[in-house]
Design goal:
By secondary structure, the protein is α+β, with helices and mostly antiparallel strands. Helices cover 48% and strands 26% of the residues. The chain has a single domain, classed as 3-Layer(aba) Sandwich (Trna Endonuclease, Chain: A, domain 1).
Length: 237
């Protein structure tokens, strides 16, 4: 568990095991949890494809097909976590040893940062909004050609719109406590198949509105669930 004092009065805590944030002992909602209300049709199609591929390889094993998606998802998440940690250590100047398991991903990040003379200002910085009561961890802050960017590292198959809703939430939380100018956002996509992509955004005003809209939906859904006696009864069973 990490504890960071953000002011003389506030104590922000992050439990890495449960991935939960608390402020002065009260739970904060995570940014990615809030954005889970946004539909992900590509993910639904991917899970269906995984199940079909499993049945082709294992005819009649419907029980295994139902679990195939979660098994493949968790394995992919593990690889992503390893690559993400390697990049974090590299940004912090720790000179991590080459890992053949993820080097096809991490080499792309190092090449991008080196070729663009990226100056990293912060890494894995925990931020929170007391006004909107959420928290998250931004991957990095950096300077590129004199401009300051808030960046996020993704190991997914592509760059999706909601990634910039996520980084905009981090900017909102960061600027609630620090006087820092952010010129734009960048998503660096180090794909598990060795592919690489990057995308910049300068639409903070529109993206933060989208995030706050998702926050309203998330909070309203929570209110309705708590107010629904049938759901409470069902959960007890």
């Amino acid at each position: 568990m990490s504890i960071r004092s953000m002011s003389n009065l506030d104590k922000l805590q992050f439990d890495a095991g449960s991935h939960r944030y608390t402020l002065n002992g009260k739970p904060l909602t995570g940014v990615t949890t809030i954005l889970s209300v946004i539909a992900k049709p590509a993910l639904i199609q991917w899970s269906a494809n995984v199940a079909v591929d499993y049945l082709i390889a294992n005819p009649g094993d419907y029980k295994g097909a139902r679990k195939a998606y979660t098994i493949k998802r968790d394995a992919a998440a593990d690889i992503g976590t390893i690559a993400h940690k390697w990049i974090e250590d590299w940004i912090n100047g720790e000179k991590p040893k080459e890992n053949p398991e993820v080097s096809h991903m991490t080499d792309n990040f190092v090449e991008w940062a080196t070729d663009n003379e990226v100056e990293f200002l912060a890494s894995e910085k925990i931020v929170y909004s007391k006004k909107h009561w959420f928290a998250g961890t931004l991957d990095f802050l950096c300077k590129i050609k004199g401009k300051t960017y808030l960046g996020d590292i993704k190991t997914s198959s592509g760059i999706y719109d909601e990634y910039f809703f996520q980084t905009s939430a981090y900017q909102l939380a960061l600027q609630e406590h620090e006087d820092i100018k952010i010129d734009g956002h960048v998503i660096v996509n180090c794909k598990k198949d060795g592919g690489f992509n990057k995308k910049f955004s300068f639409d903070y005003d529109k993206n933060i509105k989208a995030f706050l809209g998702a926050l309203d939906i998330y909070r309203r859904k929570g209110e309705l669930e708590r107010a629904n006696p049938w759901k409470k009864k069902y959960k007890k069973k």
